[in-house]
Structures are given as structure tokens and as C-alpha cells.
Amino acid sequence: MLFDAHLHIIDRGRLDYPWLPDVPALNHDSLYEDYARDALRCGITNVLHMEVDVAPQQIGSETTYVKEISARPGSLVRGAIAACRPEEDGFAAHLESCLADPFIKGFRRVLHVAPDDTSERPLFRDNIRRLANTRLTFDLCVFPHQFERILTLVDLNPDVRFILDHCANPPIKDGMSTLWRQGITEFSRRPNVTAKISGVIAYGDLEGWSVDSLRPYVEHTIQSFGWDRVVWGSDWPVCTLGGGLTPWVAATHALTAGCSADERDKLYQANVKRIWSV
Hints:
The chain has nine helices and eight strands. The protein is of the alpha/beta class. The longest helix is centred in the C-terminal third of the chain and has 16 residues, at 261-276. The model has no long low-confidence stretch (mean pLDDT 96).
């Protein structure tokens, strides 16, 4: 069984996504019902929703919407990683509100679409420090050229639990990058960072990727972090750019075929349940 730690739901009738028109391949509704049909067939039993960078004034509305979905009979949704803006003055109040809501499991601010110095701003750093020793995690969605800055952020906050999305976005299509490979090793040396095995089929040859083309990146990430600090995610609907949910689940099973049942269980579901108490 799989616990999906990275589902996006896009509903343009309910929420505004300022970035979406610039990504034509994803500029359509990607609704829970569409995901759940395939997820159930693939053995996915539980889901955390990942924020989708909605218009800032709708961050709270996105959580309300996902809560409504979680309340439907038979829903797979168990919680949400909410959007946030640590670079803004309103973060402290947003944090207090989210701490009072057990449905919210963590935060994400997509940094690869923000100016590279965002994580170095004093207010951003001060606000991330507020997460120390709370139950809320902070997802890191970054590109390799940002690694040095983000490693500094992690080092400044040893008591904040960080989740490194999508194997740190390796440039698979361009071949193995020394910057990425060494960066993964450096992130793994920080015990407060967990890696998410997700998203990689969207970074290779979208039509020609294979299990073997993904293997070096997934294996290096897992070997670096160890089985107790990896979780799995679909990155749906972004994974549809590389074939969809079913091929990614099949690739996951192929990539872990030689692992023990205990190792697979940790990646597939046990670590998610432990980290986010779900």
C-alpha cells in the first residue's frame, strides 16, 4: 500500500492559480475524482494534499477546499501541506492559525519560482525559525543552483523538520549533474532533512524515460538519506506530463523490487505516518 505525500488538486472554478496560464500542459482542472480513480487502482490508500501556489489571498481558501474533499465518504485525503509566505509580515499569525488546525501538517513556499535570495532575507529566516520544535514541517522545492543558499537555511534551523521535494529536482534530461549529486549528499548529512521520492518522471525525457534512466537518481537519494528518511509522492497531476500516475507507481515498484519488505514499507507509508502523525 502507498501513502501519497504529494498530491495537487487544481480546480479553477474554486481557486485562482496565477502561474497556471504559463504552463499550458497543466492549464486545466485536475480534480480529486480524476486522481482517486487511478489511485485506488494503484494501491494508494492515503494522501496528503500539497499546496498549488494559489493566489496569496486564497491560501486559507485552498485549505478549506481540501478539507471539504477530505470529508467526502471514502476520501483518501488525510491532511494538507499549506502554502505560506515566510518573507511577509503576516506569517506569524498564519502559523498560529495553522498550529491550531490538526488537518494542516506542514508548510511549503516554492523557492525555485522566487528570487534566489528569498531564503536569505532576515524576515524569511526569522519566520522559518518559528517552526522549530513544532509539529509542522517545511517542504523545500528548489533547483540545484540554489542548494548552497538552502543548505545555509537548513543549518540555521536544526530544530525545524525539512522535506526535500522531488529528489531535489535533478536535471535528468541533461544527464547526471555533479552539482545535484553532491548536493543530495550534503542535504543527507543534515538529520533534520527528509527526501521525497517524487516528481522525477517530469524531469527526464517525458516520452522516452525508463526505469533505468530514473534509477541513478532515485537510488542515490535513498542511499544517501537511508530508508528512515525517505517518503513517496505522486506529484499528480505533474506526473501526467511523463505518462501519469500508473506508470510512476509501476516504476516505483520496479525501482524497489530488490529491497526488503521493511525497506519498501518505510518508503511507501510508514515514514509518512510517523513524520506527520497520520
